[in-house]
Design goal:
By secondary structure, the chain is of the alpha+beta class. It has 43 helices and 52 strands. The longest helix is centred in the C-terminal third of the chain and has 27 residues.
């Protein structure tokens, strides 16, 4: 493309700009991005050059070579065959086409120029000689040489740059500004000159800059100087410096005070128009009146009285200073900001810019909209905390008749353990808690930069937040992690040792010498550093403590050294070491790596101070009632004296380095040698730069070998376990025991507190638990003299251990002798690893250890470990019938043999090996019984603590017991969260006593519907085999199990609409741009979601083609052709098809997808009455789909004006409710389009009553989608999986043979399977959808789980006993009830049972809907019911603005993940049958307009 441009630039006016993409911009309507299209266009606009050939034949040849370059040469790995073909073509030619240069030569030459393979072939002599000749000839020509050299230099630069693995840039979602036009966007950043900028301001400034740059617009930086008492000119200077640091360049600098005369005039205008008044009510009383919605006594002053009081204010008199100007808006407004806010106040203080000119100053809320409008701001970016003030902003604009800017909201930046309030930050500075506004603990731009944040890191962090409106509290770890990405590749590495703990090591054969080493092992550009070696070096004492004599240790930047001797002092501490070089050994894989420094007078070590800062605020998130002064961390700064690398003497202030094995540091004060004034040297002061890791750096002494325990934990991790009762051990009881027992109590209580917080328990429940935890920790400190820290090894017991049961004597790798503590500790390790997203192998290993610890705990105590339970105070007693050593020995041998059996099974050992081990186990149990007179049991009985009756008799275990004649291998897995039956007697290989838990699979659900709906839903639809995820986001594979439900809906609805005379058809999925945009208001609703096809292969289409988001604009041009007379009506067509709506919200399978299946009906009638009748007929059919087929009750009604179908007259709807999320969902809609579309598409017919006159047709459209499947899943599903109503279930009955064991004779097995087949045949004959699951590689228990998860309505169990008794057992999926059915009645009873299940599901869902749908007449009652997860019918005026207001006022403080009921309420429908009748004169809940009807509102999908 560049070559073509070079050739034609003499004939055609064009300019070339460098950018990311190759594109030819002819006009806003005509642009090309395909290289071949660009070159063809340029050749055609300069025909005199002949670049496209001189005749038709040459043009065809040129086209051939253009395709050849694109398909055979560009980016292709093997060019040999293509080059051979090209070589043959050039054998007798100078140019590829004709006798002159053409596009063929340009494109093929450019393709070869960019090919590394061709460059290598060209360098070899003799290969492809004709191509080499042609290529060299063209390369010597001027345009080729110029373009080629420029391109080659860039290629070289890109090749020499370090090759890094491409990563997706972590950039947030910047939402496009509504109504923004390229080149016309004006945004502003308005800081108040009353303090330094903090990172919250940085986010605002960078967001504004983003839109300025993206829209090629204008950024105004405006100092908000409306309050003379707060303005300081000093701060203006530092703010400008801070903005410059952030590399932001505003286009214009202004002050609000520039506009004081205009604002003053507009304020007086409001007074004269009676839209404002002067009030002298004292501030406290005014606040009280506004809260109680009481009007001020001055509210109805005359204009003259107001102007008189205004003059007092302007003069700054004593009385004037008690007054303020207030807007007269609405004292009854639910929005407090609209209750007559203050516009002007009187301040008798000089202003930094206007001096004493004014005594009255506008409030920010009054001045901001005026100045935004005057300065031409098109989009005012404000944080969501200003949300309530938006209404006031627009009131000022409307009242003063000014141009209206658009407010765009984004979330403010909230960081844990941080205050961003200027008032609070100023307090810290004034009280001396910090060094100043640039203190490294401060969130100011200067503070974080001084602590080592780079401008690039800060910008990347802010960019990653994007324009999100989700208000979240973030950890500082996130921002520092971005910074690490910037500094890690360029920070030079140095060494420093803790000066108080250095240990000398003597290496006699080492020479004192100076060598060079890389400052950065992965980036040579950072440079080299001198490193001194010698016979005496220092290492850190913590490292030295880990050494053993004869051990090989790797000294970083030196090599392997063998420790030959360790010298210790009288106190056991290491005083010195001896070693010898082993540099020829280059195996560093299993050695300990340490840092060191040589002790040489030629290069003395540098005194260094390492400073580490903690948060100033100790509480992560301060509540509204919290006083920040109560949570000040007074020990937020820690210093360590170090001996530093001699190279540190050259480090300058602001340099960022890495101290090996310690972390990143920034130089805050460089080293200075001995001063002639103080006779002292100044150490190098380094500030620690956090790197975003919650794990600690591997510091001295952190030796990896022989350390199976977890790394130290910084913060107590959140528990993922279920809530449990508080431990019974009180602090006083714990104190009477030893430190180990107390440690266990703290662990248990900590788990309880975490669980209470996770479950969002009431404050009065959490506080006592926290209080008890703190009491236990205090007791622990008193007893042990050290603070309790999560993850540390528990202290050894101070009491003499009582004699444990033999089962408890198995060896353990844990440092603790208490199994309970071991489980708790390992649980913390696992949680920590998961929180840190550690590698899967590491987590699996830790989980394995945890499960082993739990098994040991159960063996010792007889109970399942539960988080929060009381720690066992003593070891369990031995069997009471015999205390002799012989019985104890056999007891221990049984336990050990049980372990052997478990291990063999877990390792899937050969059957004969397992059988032998089981046989030995049974013999030992027999010996134990003979000796003691009782059965061997692992310590406790089923009545032991932690074993409840309800658990023993759970439904799942009863179903297990129903597996006829025992055996069957048992169930491979229980439902999520339920325990396997452990004490079930079985034969060889069975799960007998002492055999431990059965193998777990992940068949069942691991999330609960009531606890985590999103996870539950995701697991249900995937594990029940409804959905398979796809590699295009928002698109999903519908598996047969889900598609069968859609087919049931389709069959029913198709049958019913055909009774109404509707016919099926199919229209194309592609829509021309002209057709799509014909009905503007209609397509406006879909515009952001339309997917466009813009290319065919590599060729740009002449105009883009849309993929249908709906088919009105596809079908109605045809209707216009078909309709000429009233006899051509009605047209009743329906199509079953897919549509694409490229939603950018969070996609959810079935509920919100980019492609979905639906039916869309489009009908046209001669009269409105016919059309209106059909709207209701179709709506009734949709209600039947939900209620009769899917057993889901719906509310029928009409949509409000705001929610109706765009371009239609009115919309009717059926709305369903999902109580698990407290949200409604639109089920299906039937629209009356009136004559809107027929007018646009000219669907007209001759009126039979008025010959010659044309009449417009009346139209409807209606549709239902695969969203129905998601609604069904959420309404009926439970914690075991899907629950399918029989009428839509793919399978209504599944037959499962039970009791087929190894001992069952083959003949009986054949009879049993034959009976299952008979049931299958009999049920199929009566049109029941049935399947027999005869797979022999799964146990009946596994099959029960599988089909329950898939939601099959009835499970038919058939076992040997059933055969003998002539019966079968039916298990209902909806209730779990078991029903014995005589063989002869099977068909009839099962058909009746299916109807009962259908009715029961509908009744259950109807009861749920009635419980959650209520009526409310006031806003307070409405909001209360809404927040309890209900849908509410309220009196409503029907206004669109009122509906927007309701949505805003009911939105909670933050937008959570899609699915959380925090969004504002929207209108669902105006019910045809409301819960209450509207009373005459009843007002809308807003209190502004009379109500028109009761309308159903709720949070919705």
């Amino acid at each position: 493309a560049l070559l073509a441009a070079e050739h034609v630039k003499g004939s055609v006016s064009l300019s070339v700009q460098e950018g990311k993409d190759t594109k030819l911009h002819v006009s806003d309507q005509v642009q090309f991005s395909d290289v071949n299209s660009i070159t063809r266009y340029l050749a055609r606009v300069a025909p005199s050059l002949g670049l496209y050939g001189s005749n038709m034949m040459e043009q065809t040849e040129v086209d051939h070579w253009l395709e050849f370059s694109a398909r055979r040469l560009n980016g292709k790995p093997d060019l040999a065959s293509a080059l051979g073909e090209l070589n043959a073509a050039l054998a007798l030619r100078t140019f590829l086409v004709g006798h002159g240069l053409t596009l063929a030569d340009l494109c093929v030459w450019a393709a070869l120029k960019g090919s590394g393979e061709w460059q290598a072939a060209h360098a070899k002599s003799g290969s492809f000689p004709h191509v080499c000749r042609w290529f060299s000839f063209l390369s010597s020509q001027v345009p080729f040489s110029e373009v080629g050299s420029k391109w080659a230099s860039k290629l070289t630069a890109s090749q020499t740059a370090p090759v890094e693995k491409e990563k997706k840039q972590d950039v947030g979602k910047f939402v496009e500004l509504p109504g923004a036009e390229m080149g016309k966007v004006v945004v502003r950043f308005p800081p108040e000159a009353s303090g330094y900028l903090h990172i919250g301001h940085a986010k605002a400034a960078l967001l504004n800059q983003h839109y300025q740059v993206n829209f090629k617009g204008k950024l105004i930086m405006r100092f908000d100087d409306t309050n003379p008492e707060k303005e300081k000119e000093d701060f203006e200077k530092v703010i400008l410096e801070d903005v410059a640091m952030l590399q932001i360049k505003p286009d214009q600098f202004t002050y609000t005070s520039d506009h004081f005369p205009t604002i003053l005039r507009l304020g007086e205008q409001l007074l004269r128009e009676g839209r404002a008044y002067i009030d002298d009510t004292p501030p406290d009383l005014m606040k009280q009146e506004r809260e109680q919605r009481i009007e001020s006594r001055h509210r109805n002053n005359s204009v003259e009285k107001n102007l008189q009081m205004w003059e007092e204010m302007k003069a700054g008199t004593e009385y004037g200073q008690t007054c303020c100007m207030r807007a007269k808006i609405d004292m009854n407004s639910n929005n407090g900001c609209m209750r007559d806010p203050t516009l002007y106040r009187c301040k008798n203080a000089p202003h930094p810019r206007t001096g004493s000119t004014y005594k009255v100053y506008p409030t920010y809320d009054f001045a901001c909209p005026i100045v935004d409008s005057i300065e031409g701001v098109t989009h005012a970016l404000r944080t969501t905390e200003y949300h309530d003030r938006d209404e006031q902003f627009y009131w000022v604009i409307d009242a003063l008749r000014l141009r209206k800017p658009y407010i765009w909201e984004y979330a403010r930046l909230n960081l844990n353990n941080t205050v961003l309030s200027k008032r609070k930050l100023t307090w810290f500075v004034d009280q001396g808690y910090v060094d100043g506004w640039d203190d490294p603990r401060f969130p100011t731009v200067r503070g974080v930069l001084r602590r080592g944040m780079t401008v690039e890191g800060l910008k990347q962090f802010i960019a990653a937040q994007g324009g999100s409106r989700s208000v979240v509290n973030m950890e500082w770890d996130k921002i520092w992690a971005f910074n690490k990405k910037v500094i890690d590749p360029i920070a030079p590495r140095y060494t420093a040792l803790l000066s108080s703990q250095v240990v000398p090591i003597s290496i006699p054969e080492a020479k004192e010498e100076l060598k060079e080493a890389a400052k950065h092992p992965k980036n040579s550009d950072v440079g080299m550093k001198p490193v001194w070696y010698g016979p005496k070096v220092f290492v850190e004492g913590a490292d030295a403590e880990t050494f053993t004599e004869g051990e090989t240790v790797t000294f970083i930047n030196w090599g392997n050294i063998i420790i030959t001797k360790i010298h210790k002092g009288s106190n056991g501490a290491i005083t010195s070491l001896e070693g010898r070089l082993n540099l020829e050994n280059t195996d560093f894989k299993k050695t300990t790596k340490i840092t060191w420094l040589a002790d040489t007078p030629k290069s003395p070590l540098i005194p260094t101070v390492c400073v580490n800062y903690q948060h100033l605020i100790s509480k992560p998130v301060l509540g509204k009632d919290d006083n920040f002064k109560d949570y000040i961390n007074k020990n937020s700064k820690a210093e360590e004296m170090m001996l530093g690398d001699p190279c540190l003497k050259d480090v300058k202030k602001g340099d960022i380095i890495q101290l090996q094995r310690r972390g990143f540091y920034i130089c805050d004060q460089p080293y200075e040698p001995v001063s002639p004034h103080s006779c002292k040297e100044s150490p190098c002061v380094l500030l620690y730069i956090p790197d975003g890791h919650t794990k600690e750096m591997p510091t001295a002494g952190s030796k990896s070998k022989n350390q199976p325990t977890a790394k130290p934990v910084k913060a107590e991790p959140a528990s993922v376990s279920k809530s449990a009762p508080a431990p019974s051990t009180s602090p006083t009881q714990a104190a009477s025991g030893d430190a180990s027992a107390l440690f266990s109590s703290i662990v248990a209580q900590g788990e309880l507190v975490r669980q209470l917080k996770t479950d969002k328990a009431p404050k009065e429940q959490v506080d006592p638990a926290v209080k008890q935890l703190l009491s236990l920790k205090a007791e622990y400190k008193k007893l042990t003299g050290q603070e309790y820290k999560p993850g540390v090894a528990p202290p050894a017991s101070s009491q003499k251990q009582t004699s444990p049961a033999p089962a408890a004597t198995s060896p353990s790798s844990s440092s603790s002798s208490c199994p309970y503590t071991r489980v708790a500790e390992q649980g913390e390790v696992v949680r920590k690893l998961k929180a840190e997203k550690a590698p899967k192998e590491q987590i699996d290993e830790a989980v394995k250890v945890l499960l082993a610890a739990k098994a040991e705990f159960k063996q010792v105590t007889g109970q399942d470990y539960k988080p929060g339970m009381s720690a066992p105070s003593a070891a369990p007693a031995q069997p009471t019938s015999s205390s002799s050593s012989s019985s104890a020995d056999i007891y221990e041998r049984v336990a050990e043999q049980g372990e052997v059996v478990r291990k063999l099974k877990s390792e899937k050992a050969p059957k004969e090996q397992v059988d032998t081990a089981v046989k030995t186990l049974l013999e030992l149990k027999g010996q134990y019984k003979a000796l003691t007179g009782e059965e061997y049991k692992p310590v406790s009985t089923p009545g032991a603590p932690g074993h409840t009756k309800s658990e023993d008799k759970s439904r799942k275990e009863r179903e297990n017991a129903s597996e006829k004649q025992g055996g069957g291998g048992g169930r491979k897995q229980q439902k999520g969260g339920e325990k396997s039956q452990q004490n079930q007697e079985g034969g060889a290989g069975g799960a007998g006593d002492g055999q431990g838990p059965k193998k777990q699979t992940r068949l069942g659900l691991e999330a609960k519907k009531e606890e985590n709906l999103a996870d539950w839903y995701s697991q249900v639809i995937t594990k029940s085999e409804m959905i398979e995820y796809y590699d295009v986001s928002g698109c999903y594979v519908l598996r047969p199990w889900a598609y069968a439900i859609w087919e049931s809906i389709k069959d029913f609805f198709d049958r019913e609409i055909k009774k109404l005379g509707v016919e099926n058809c199919y229209f194309p999925m592609f829509v021309s741009q002209a057709a799509l945009e014909k009905e503007k208001s209609h397509i406006a609703d879909f515009a952001p979601e339309v997917a466009w096809v813009t290319r065919s292969g590599k060729t740009e289409l002449a105009e883009p083609i849309a993929v249908r988001p709906t088919s009105e604009t596809v079908m109605y041009p045809a209707y216009a052709k078909w309709v000429q007379s009233h006899r051509d009506l009605p047209i009743k067509l329906n199509q079953w098809c897919n549509v694409v709506r490229w939603e950018f919200k969070h996609p959810q399978p079935f509920l919100r997808t980019r492609e979905f299946l639906w039916q869309e009906g489009h009908t046209a009638f001669a009269t409105k009455e016919e059309a209106a009748e059909e709207v209701m007929q179709i709506l009734d059919l949709y209600a039947r789909v939900y209620e009769d087929l899917m057993a889901i009750p719906v509310v029928k009604g009409r949509k409000t004006e705001k929610e109706k179908f765009a371009g239609g007259d009115y919309t009717t709807t059926v709305e369903a409710f999902i109580s698990a999320s407290g949200r409604a969902i639109q089920g299906a809609t039937s629209h009356h389009l009136g004559q809107n579309f027929s007018r646009m598409f000219e669907i007209v017919f001759e009126d039979p009553k008025k010959p010659g006159e044309k009449q417009l047709a009346y139209q409807n459209s209606w549709g239902i989608t695969t969203r129905t499947i998601g609604v069904l899943t959420m309404v009926h599903g439970d914690n075991m999986g899907l629950v399918l109503p029989p009428r839509v279930a793919c399978l209504q009955v599944v037959i499962i043979p039970c009791g087929i064991t190894a001992s069952l004779p083959e003949a009986e097995k054949e009879v049993l399977l034959a009976q299952c087949s008979k049931y299958l045949s009999r049920l199929q004959k009566v049109d029941i959808r049935v399947k027999a699951d005869l797979r022999d590689n799964y146990s009946p228990g596994w099959k029960f789980n599988h089909w329950e998860l898939k939601g099959v309505p009835i499970r038919l169990e058939v076992g040997p006993k059933d055969l003998k008794q002539g019966q079968c057992v039916a298990v209902r999926r909806d209730t779990g009830e078991k029903i014995t059915i005589p063989d002869a009645e099977a068909e009839n009873r099962i058909k009746l049972l299916l109807e009962e299940i259908q009715d029961n599901l509908f009744k259950r869902a109807s009861t749920d809907l009635k419980k959650h749908m209520v009526a409310a007449d006031t806003m307070e009652q409405f909001q209360k019911e809404l927040d309890q997860g209900k849908i509410v019918q309220i009196p409503f005026c029907g206004g669109i603005e009122c509906e927007d207001w309701i949505k805003k006022i009911t939105a909670k403080d933050q937008d959570l993940e899609p699915g959380a009921p925090s969004m504002g309420a929207k209108s669902l429908c105006i019910p045809f049958q409301p819960l209450k009748t509207l009373q005459q004169g009843q007002m809308c809940v807003s209190g502004k307009e009379p109500a028109q009807f009761y309308t159903l509102f709720g949070r919705s999908y």
